[in-house]
Structures are given as structure tokens and as C-alpha cells.
Design a protein that fits this description.
Tetracycline Repressor, domain 2, transcription regulation, mainly alpha, single chain, Homeodomain-like_sf, Arc Repressor Mutant, subunit A, transcription cis-regulatory region binding
Length: about 220
């Protein structure tokens, strides 16, 4: 009887643990859903994506996706915020380093950003498409992560421009820098699908741009 009571007690504890586990958020499942959502939103756009599409991409039950995230809107906001942070991660410290010149900052940003985008090549396109569907929360995220225009780098450029030592307006220079870094990744699918280049050539070109872009930007200065 004692052994039987012990086994029943253990089984009850295990069942209770299993019940609690089901109710607790599963980090791996959430990550899987977020990763799938980003892939589907990037591929289909916000309007053409459904929660069922995301569930199918994640190979998870539709109800489970709803359980964790409740709505497509919430999922989209979370994925967009993460994409914005990821796109701008790693360059904030570079841009605000008071010990480096603008030219040195340009060198470091080009290398760091291209390295990051080679790992996450769809980030620029996803963020650009997402801005059109952005909520107030996403707009706030963009403002809070406006690392370029509020940076020490731009302050340096404004000082140089004020002294007549910079040929173009700082905003033009920043726009040119960001465009040169991100637009090849936005156009990547078009280039690949038309057969103009393959992925190996694209990656080689991006490696070349780590040194080419700083050279072009410095000529504008």
C-alpha cells in the first residue's frame, strides 16, 4: 500500500508539473514562431500573411500560435521591433565614439553593417516594407533607434560643414552612406532572379563594397 501510495503521489506530481509546463511560455516555440513570422512577412508582406501561414511555416498548431501571440498585429509589431534593433545593432557605439574621426567611423560602419547584412540579407527589405504598415509603437521604435541623426558622427559632420570643410550637407552624406550599404540587399532578389549574378558573386561584391563605399563617400566629403 505504501509503495502504491508513493507511486500515485509521484504520478500526481508529474502530472502537475506537466500541466504547469503546458501553461508556461515555451521559449523555443516562441522563437520558432517569431522566426517563421519574419520569413512569411518578408516573403508575402503584411496584408497577404495570415496566422495560419505563420503556423504552417513554423510547423506548429494554429491554436498554439494564437495562444502565444493572440494576433497577427502583435506578431508583426514584435518582429518589426526586433528587425529594427538588429539592423541598427553594432553601429551605435561606432557612431558615438568620440575618439575616432568621421572617416574612421565610415570605415567601421561599412565593414560592420555589411558583415551583419550578409548574415541577415532580408533585413533592409523587411524593415522598408514594414514602415508602410507601421503602428505607433513601430514609429516610436524607429525614433528611439534613430542612431544616425542623433549620433556624434553627425555632430562631427555638422561642425565640418559649418567650417566649410565638408562639401555636401551632412544629411545628404548620411543618406548616401545608408543607401549604398542597404540597397544592394534590397535589390538582391531581382539580381538573382534575372540571372545577372549568382549568390557567390553577390557575396563577393558585398565584400568589395566594404572598401569601395568608404572611398566613394570620402570623395563626396
Amino acid at each position: 500500500m505504501e509503495n502504491g501510495s508513493y507511486i500515485c503521489a509521484v504520478n500526481s506530481i508529474d502530472m502537475a508539473k506537466a500541466t504547469r509546463k503546458k501553461k508556461d511560455p515555451d521559449a523555443s516555440a516562441e522563437e520558432k514562431i517569431l522566426s517563421a513570422a519574419r520569413a512569411v512577412f518578408t516573403r508575402n508582406g503584411y496584408a497577404a500573411t495570415t496566422v495560419r501561414d505563420i503556423a504552417a511555416e513554423a510547423d506548429l498548431n494554429f491554436s498554439l500560435v494564437n495562444y502565444y501571440f493572440r494576433s497577427k498585429e502583435k506578431l508583426y509589431d514584435l518582429v518589426m521591433k526586433d528587425a529594427i534593433r538588429q539592423l541598427l545593432s553594432g553601429i551605435k557605439d561606432v557612431l558615438n565614439d568620440v575618439h575616432t574621426t568621421p572617416e574612421e567611423k565610415i570605415d567601421l560602419v561599412c565593414v560592420g553593417w555589411i558583415d551583419m547584412l550578409l548574415v541577415h540579407p532580408d533585413l533592409p527589405l523587411f524593415v522598408m516594407n514594414g514602415v508602410a504598415n507601421s503602428s505607433n509603437d513601430i514609429t516610436k521604435e524607429l525614433v528611439e533607434n534613430n542612431v544616425f541623426l542623433t549620433s556624434y558622427f553627425v555632430k562631427q559632420l555638422m561642425e565640418l560643414h559649418g567650417k566649410g570643410k565638408l562639401k555636401i550637407a551632412p544629411l545628404h552624406l548620411v543618406m548616401n552612406l545608408v543607401s549604398m550599404l542597404t540597397l544592394p540587399f534590397v535589390a538582391r532578389h531581382l539580381l538573382l532572379k534575372t540571372g545577372a549574378i549568382d549568390m557567390k558573386i553577390f557575396k563577393a561584391m558585398m565584400e568589395e563594397r566594404k572598401t569601395q563605399i568608404p572611398g566613394w563617400i570620402k570623395l563626396m566629403m
